[in-house]
Amino acid sequence: DYELFYSKINPEPGLSVLRRGLDLSERKTFMAEDLGYILRDEGRSEEAVQAFLLAVSRGPSSYFIYKELAELYEKIDPELAAEYRSRFSGYVKTAGKKSWWKFWGQK
After folding, report:
1. What is the per-residue DSSP string for 80-100?
2. Averaged over 86-97, what is the pLDDT?
3. Can you give the pTM of this predicted structure?
4. 8-20 pLDDT, tens per residue?
5. Max intra-chain CA distance, the chain
6. What secondary structure letter does DSSP report for 8?
7. Which helix (DSSP H) or strand (DSSP E) does residue 22 occupy?
8. CA-wise closest residue to 27 among 65, 69, 59, 67
9. Beta carbons of 18 and 5 less than 8 angstroms apart
10. Cα–Cα distance for residue pair 84/78, rounded to 1 Å
11. Which residues contact 25 (CB under 8 A, 6 or more apart)?
């Protein structure tokens, strides 16, 4: 839960911990996602996008990351926003079916 690292009064210590963790860890997905959520909440959209893209490149923990990217890209690049909205919608449509598990690499 990213709120373990997030202080609205002073978010920098949490951001530093997560960035350091990204440097040291081989499994970056969860840290990248938590970093993205904090940066999003701080209004740092472009940095949040980079963190979420790192999570996507490593296999996101949830298809909701595509929704986050769509919402962030609305401010930066509407064309990419549409692409990520489409990806999110595709996963939502298959979430109740076995094909959803392909996303997780399971059968």
Report:
1. HHHHHHHHHHHHHHHTTSTTH
2. 73
3. 0.81
4. 899 999 999 999 9
5. 44
6. S
7. helix 12-24
8. 59
9. yes
10. 10
11. 31
